[in-house]
Design brief:
It holds the Pfam family MMR_HSR1. The protein is of the alpha/beta class. It has one domain: P-loop containing nucleotide triphosphate hydrolases (Rossmann fold). Helices cover about 35% and strands about 20% of the residues. Strands 1-3-4-2-5-6-7 form a 7-stranded mixed beta sheet, with helices on both faces. The longest helix has 17 residues. The two termini are about 15 Å apart. Bound molecules: guanosine-5'-triphosphate and magnesium ion.
Length: about 200
């Protein structure tokens, strides 16, 4: 699929105030700094569409980007950034929870994890929670440019074997680099496939 247009629509601090349309939404979630906003910019080929930062905790609201006038990419705040303070963390976790569980238009949640790291407890718990709640999701292993392809593959395999302890069927997964544009076609083709199913 080619992206012919991508535009910022709205930022929200409440899931129930998101756009009142019935277009499908593909949302990006994961720990702060994992590369959610950068991936949205890479997919849309618009480096400044979503705000990114080397400092964790940049995205604090739910951001809707309309693509090809047909569907939305949704940038969510990261979870698990303790330096924000407990109050802020609780607020953001409620916002994420509300969006993920209540938003009927949410068609697939892409859970981003850093391809360089061993499975992190917070991500495994989040994925387990998605399973318990029947939320459709896929995993994206980010920042693959930061190590060799072999090392990425080895880490991904460790991750998948950890997941297979919990799941009979593994979720779809992708390997990405916002820097090198890796995974762009695969992720967009997957979205297109769901849009047409
Ligand atoms: P929050 O909004 O704070 O939750 O973070 P985020 O997940 O949106 O991360 P963001 O896209 O802002 O990226 C965080 C940092 O990682 C930035 O300095 C990016 O340039 C860098 N980054 C993101 N993706 C990649 C990647 O694929 N490769 C490399 N080398 N750096 C990346
Ligand atoms: Mg962000």
């Amino acid at each position: 699929m080619e992206i012919t247009s991508a535009e910022f629509v709205v930022s929200n601090s409440r899931a129930d105030m998101c756009p009142a349309t019935h277009l499908p939404e593909y949302a990006f979630i994961g720990r702060s700094n994992v590369g959610k906003s950068s991936l949205i910019n890479m997919l849309t080929k618009q480096p400044k569409l979503a705000m990114t930062s080397a400092t964790p905790g940049k995205t604090l609201l739910i951001n809707h980007f309309l693509v090809n006038k047909e569907w939305y990419l949704v940038d969510l705040p990261g979870y698990g950034y303790a330096q924000r303070g407990k109050k802020m963390m609780d607020k953001i976790e409620k916002l994420i929870q509300h969006y993920v569980l209540e938003r009927e238009q949410m068609t697939c949640l892409f859970v981003l994890v850093d391809s360089r790291l061993a499975p992190q407890k917070i991500d495994m718990e989040f994925i387990e929670w998605l399973g318990e709640n029947g939320v459709p999701f896929a995993i994206i292993f980010t920042k693959a440019d930061k190590q060799s392809a072999g090392k990425t593959r080895a880490n991904v395999d460790i991750y998948l074997s950890e997941l297979s302890k919990q799941w009979e069927e593994l979720p779809p997964y992708f390997i990405s680099s916002a820097e090198k544009k890796t995974g762009r076609k695969e992720i967009l083709d997957y979205i297109e496939q769901i849009n047409h199913s």
